[in-house]
């Protein structure tokens, strides 16, 4: 009887202790919270999983065109590269991340669209990309209409996938997967005939060592994607500074260099630098 | 505020939830059958089958469902050429998703049924053996019918979880509710409102199921 | 091992069992061989795809930080959800209507909503009403979502467990003059928790797996999320999924092994103190009616 009482007391004590630690954990987190603006760093949202645009490298550094552009812009805003805090912003979370102030700006293959412009402001554009198809090097797909009856892959819910369904090849079989890597693995194994999204993204994947020489871009310009740098709605000050920085980046040749560094190996024929505020419909 | 909903016609909001319901029902039936077989293996006289049942449950139950579903598409279909009897990618994704959901949910159904078998008084099985029934007869005629009645509650919980789990099928492109949600979020830039609409949809699907099966389990409970 | 379900095998049954075993073994072996063969054919066994996992960078940059976040979120959620679940479960059995009904509503409501959406809403809640810095917020949101859902499920487990205890337990407790709270904390809860351990553990495994939902939309850097970054780097989608699956299986296996060790210990100590419930009785109690939910495998990715 005695022992049971002890074990019961122990159980109760355990529950209490757990509750206490739980609360303790919460409070600890709260009090240690220093505002996100503290210190002189800038938070920039990028993608972590797109080779050539925004990629987290094995050594923990970041590479890609978006990263280079953002680094340049940050420099013009007065931040050294080591003062930049990179944050992964998934497509679904980009508008919210900006409006909440989680990040100061986002350079993550962020196409300027009317719906998004209602939620955030865009600097740029800094790159004009197009929706395109990635196919096997020996594929005979040349036109959008060649896709009818073929197996086409894109990322779940993405605008490229919707675009194909509605306009380009309604009879194409669309496979939607969680990420571009998954699509390209399917393309490589022969289970899929083409992968579609922005050509800049596709080029980056095609240039990876594992895939070199296996794929080609069809060069079809199925849509215009104007990549802009997103900032919080109404943050005109930052917006103007970013636009100035982007203009300077193009004029002093840094833009061209970034293009060469990142898209050169991918053999990606990019469009010339877009003019600020000039959105190609 | 809600006018964007009418922009979506392939599928519509209701159509997408209908696919969710189809996924749920088919997977529920499949996992009930496969789960029962697994439970039978786990209590069977053949040691190797017992081992397989145990190993299956312990491995499958411990892998995130997302990984299992992705495996069905990237692994089974793309690498192993399991086409599920169709060349149409939409149909194939749907069938693969059902397969993945069945494989996963069956592990939980198996454990629920096995615990149900434990609730059947020992005397029942002993009496059945005494009148000369074989293992499969004992299980089919005496033990399982009683076990099922006592596990309706736990199975209801598995069914509710399954309903919500069908959303994972979006990762391999099945056009159900979650995929439509992702599409809307991508286009409309109003994540919270859209999230709320879909949350409500799931409450409508799962709450009545849970309440009905809860009532049923009380009615059918074996009074001892 | 003998079972009540079948007789001890005689010579004929033994032969039959051996035959079944052999056939079954051959089938499984054939399946495995086919899997290996096809993967080889499709180039999935190429060393280049697997080599990254032998480098330290793959682990230190991607997998280990992801694993750390997964563990952190899972541990916090368990520690908060367990007591909260117990409280909700007890509250649902309260004699007072004004306690019972709200508790029931909370449980039913949070069980019905997909966890990912709970995380999404929690994230937004923290933005609007607290000052949690943005790099910690995903963790808070993930833990909140997991706690709300799993505490509701655990509440049902606890309730079912307490209901399944023999009536004599609470009657005897009242007879010796214990108050209601003493009866609950001293008599009913300890017995119920022991009996329901398997169901509780199943739900803990669900928590570990469901941390993966945090990576889908609110950018929590858990294991599945860092896997996609890794796969983008090394172009090894399928091997990366296999490695992550193995990590999860090992992780959950450790968790369940620990739990069954704990269960054995608790039962032993019970027997030695001459508990009312004999060992066999407890075995029966582990069954479904106690389990309430024998692990739901819940989650969903939306």
TrEMBL record, chain A:
PANTHER family per the UniProt record, alphabetical: ABC TRANSPORTER GLUTAMINE-BINDING PROTEIN GLNH, AMINO ACID ABC TRANSPORTER PERMEASE
Keywords: Signal, Transport
Protein name: Glutamate ABC transporter substrate-binding protein
Pfam families reported in the protein's UniProt record: SBP_bac_3
Annotated signal sequence range: 1-22
Domain (Solute-binding protein family 3/N-terminal) ranges: 41-266
The family this protein is said to belong to: Belongs to the bacterial solute-binding protein 3 family.
Originating organism: Streptomyces indiaensis
Record keyword Transport present: yes
Keyword check for Transport: yes
TrEMBL record, chain B:
Annotated source species: Streptomyces indiaensis
Name of this protein: Amino acid ABC transporter permease
Domain ABC transmembrane type-1: 17-213
Keywords: Amino-acid transport, Cell membrane, Membrane, Transmembrane, Transmembrane helix, Transport
CDD domains: TM_PBP2 (cd06261)
Subcellular location field: Cell membrane
Membrane topology listed for this record: Multi-pass membrane protein
Family label: Belongs to the binding-protein-dependent transport system permease family. HisMQ subfamily.
Automatic annotation (TrEMBL), chain C:
Membrane topology recorded in Swiss-Prot or TrEMBL: Multi-pass membrane protein
Family annotation (Gene3D superfamilies): MetI-like (1.10.3720.10)
Location of the protein in the cell: Cell membrane
Keywords: Cell membrane, Membrane, Transmembrane, Transmembrane helix, Transport
PROSITE patterns linked: ABC_TM1
Record domain ABC transmembrane type-1: where: 67-259
Transmembrane segments: 18-36, 73-91, 103-122, 142-165, 186-208, 237-262
SUPFAM superfamilies, A to Z: MetI-like
Pfam families assigned: BPD_transp_1
InterPro entries: AA_ABC_transptr_permease_3TM (IPR010065), ArtM/GltK/GlnP/TcyL/YhdX-like (IPR043429), MetI-like (IPR000515), MetI-like_sf (IPR035906)
Family assignment from sequence similarity: Belongs to the binding-protein-dependent transport system permease family.
Protein name, UniProt field: Amino acid ABC transporter permease
